[in-house]
Amino acid sequence: MVDPAAVGNAGTAFRMDIERGKIREFAHATRSADPRYLEVDRPVVPPTFLTTTFFWQHDQADPWPSVQLDQQRGLHAEQEYEFFGPPPRAGTRLTCQSRIGEIYTKQGRRGGELTFATMHTDFWDEDGRLVARATMTGVETGQPPKGET
Fold first, then answer.
1. pLDDT tens digit sequence for 13-38
2. Could you give all domains of the chain from N- to C-terminal order, each with its CATH number?
3. Helices in 17-137 by DSSP H: which ranges?
4. CA neighbor of 57 nearest in space, from 7, 16, 100
């Protein structure tokens, strides 16, 4: 069951180095043929590339476990990316930090209560400028799926 006391919990900051080869691999994996990701020396990251943060975020850097979302009843509901200027390019070193944002409930269309939790991850460049924010929303259904207890 989601723990509302998790709101405000922040993980430790961690580093993410943006590498040209990883941008290229990501573009191929997402079937992109955009030359901005494949054919330049310092390509920009595709907008959803920041999802790879999860490969860099370990242990104390990840506050999501404090939400205690029941994985039997949990869903990944939404992922959003906001950029505050041009997207980062290969060769950029980002400092990242995640924090638990909001936890709230809504009545579901099928009669059950849904509990939503958000986690925001901020990305700063080497000069300390906020370049992007990723917001992940998870949801826990009010009861386990039918046939499971």
1. 999 999 999 999 999 999 999 999 99
2. 4-141 (3.10.129.10)
3. 20-29, 35-38
4. 16
